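FORM 12-B: Structure-to-Sequence Request
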């Protein structure tokens, strides 16, 4: 059981606005529905309120992280809550002070209540812009309810057991020959997980006879990430976006749709200006609806993406996400081959 001090650290770091410290010091199995010990507001409401005063846009990343970690934007404060948050202009605090109570609000309704309070007040335009961005971040990070998969808590000893099974290379009887080396696994596990691999390994094809599958378009890191996720629904290694996309390609190619869904959820949290094109292309080509929606939401808010979109610098599939068609007049002319 976590101590009150451990929980208080989270609230203190949240008020301070230090995302890196929050990531490092938030206890494992932290209750993301916990209420503030005195104010009785939710984690997301605290994040929205703390960022509002500046406004401090560093809280936008914190808000998105809270949602992706498990904070619920629809969670409401108890009607008995007496807490509230106030902002004012430094030059005239007495006349400009505005207050919105937490009582009965969710993070979304609280944010909208502040928007109504600040609407049509020019002096609060930056704060209104912050609220719009906060709502966009919450929307981006919240998975649609139709994408939610039933999940169960598994004791860590079970995960450790499957890690040992995966690491028991002496019992492996299937080899993936990748571009930079071999990776091994248990054939029966892969055959149960993938109808494609089952058909290959049960047949008289070369793969079935040799128990070797060539993956010259993949690397050991991607195959290992796929296997770790398949065996344990977790990983002990850090990985980059490109590695995850290669692992996603394997899961999609082999019709291991449970792993496809897991990777899709992880990808939504990795979208940034640098990874946007690669993730968006994969989402379109593999028809990953929730990743496509996340890319659309991000692209609408990203100045970099919008600039590339206007200049026609994005791949056709990605431009089509935003209803932008590539004009044949702007494409490069085909080179002629002379005879």
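FORM 12-B RESPONSE
SEQUENCE OUT:
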């Amino acid at each position: 059981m976590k101590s009150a001090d451990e929980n208080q650290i989270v609230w203190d770091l949240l008020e301070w606005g230090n995302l890196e410290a929050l990531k490092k010091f938030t206890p494992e199995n932290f209750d993301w529905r916990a209420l503030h010990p005195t104010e009785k507001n939710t984690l997301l409401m605290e994040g929205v309120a703390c960022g509002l005063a500046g406004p401090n846009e560093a809280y936008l990343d914190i808000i998105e992280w809270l949602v992706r970690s498990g904070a619920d934007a629809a969670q409401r404060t108890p009607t008995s809550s007496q807490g509230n948050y106030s902002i004012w202009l430094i030059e005239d605090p007495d006349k400009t002070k505005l207050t919105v109570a937490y009582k009965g609000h969710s993070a979304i309704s609280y944010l909208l209540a502040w928007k109504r309070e600040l609407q049509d007040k020019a002096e609060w335009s930056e704060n209104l812009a912050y609220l719009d961005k906060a709502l966009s971040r919450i929307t981006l990070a919240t998975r649609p309810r139709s994408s939610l998969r039933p999940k169960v808590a598994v004791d860590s000893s079970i995960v450790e057991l499957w890690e040992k099974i995966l690491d028991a290379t002496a019992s492996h009887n299937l080899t993936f020959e990748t571009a930079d080396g071999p990776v091994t696994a248990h054939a029966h596990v892969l055959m149960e997980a993938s109808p494609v691999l089952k058909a290959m390994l049960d047949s008289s094809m070369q793969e079935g006879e040799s128990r070797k599958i060539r993956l010259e378009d993949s690397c050991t890191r991607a195959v290992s990430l796929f296997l770790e996720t398949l065996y344990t629904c977790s990983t002990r290694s850090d990985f980059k976006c490109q590695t995850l996309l290669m692992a996603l390609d394997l899961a999609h190619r082999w019709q291991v749709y449970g792993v496809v869904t897991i990777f899709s959820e992880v990808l939504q949290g990795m979208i940034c200006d640098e990874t946007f094109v690669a993730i968006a292309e994969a989402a379109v080509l593999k028809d990953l609806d929730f990743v496509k929606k996340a890319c659309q939401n991000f692209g609408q808010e990203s100045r970099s993406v919008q600039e590339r979109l206007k200049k026609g610098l994005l791949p056709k599939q990605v431009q089509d996400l935003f209803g932008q068609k590539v004009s044949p007049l702007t494409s490069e002319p085909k080179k002629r081959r002379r005879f």
